[in-house]
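Worked example

This section walks through a single chain of length 215. The input is the sequence exactly as stored; nothing has been trimmed or padded.
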Amino acid sequence: MTAIVIGVVGGTYASVPLYKVFCQRTGFGGTTQRADDREVKEDKKSKLMGKLYEMSNAPADKKKQGHTWTDEEQASRLATLKPVPNAPLITVTFDSNVSSTTPFKFKPATRSVSVVGGETALAFFTCKNQSTSPVTGVATYNVYPPKAGLYFNKVQCFCFEEQRLLGGEEVDMPVLFYIDPEFYEDDQLDGVQDVTLSYTFFKTDEEDEDEDEDE
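Given that input, the structure is written out below as tokens.
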């Protein structure tokens, strides 16, 4: 099983869908158990993005928005979700990586954030295409320690969504999340106060050169 997983993770974007399904079903690498996706209309996405900017300290000069998905089941829980009183803080550190074949500059706007279980948090990542040609990439992610991934719930995220950036283009990409209060009840996470959310961008197998020739 391990050998198969290493082969998938080490491959190109063609392996990402398989990796995505494997992670969601097994929790491998700390990947969260994401609810079934539903298509979200663009106007609804836009409104949610506006709210995210209002909640954050994002610069006034907003960049173009990257593609994201919204987990409506998790979003519906926000109305009744409450932070656990007097609970130990959990520091979530954001890590960003780019494969050697992907000409992206990718980094978190904030290095870390401290939350308690049941408290929503928002983070922005910035991605810039440093080449002069269009490039399509996709980000995978994992959570460390892996067990924490079972309680790490994403409401909106950019992972597994194709991001096509023109030459020199830069976009903002949000991730809105919360840690399930049951995190504190798991004996295997007793004393754990640091969690890392790590993303890696890969260039897809799609070629943008043909589009350039047509323009």
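What to look for: Residues 42-55 form the longest helix (14 residues).
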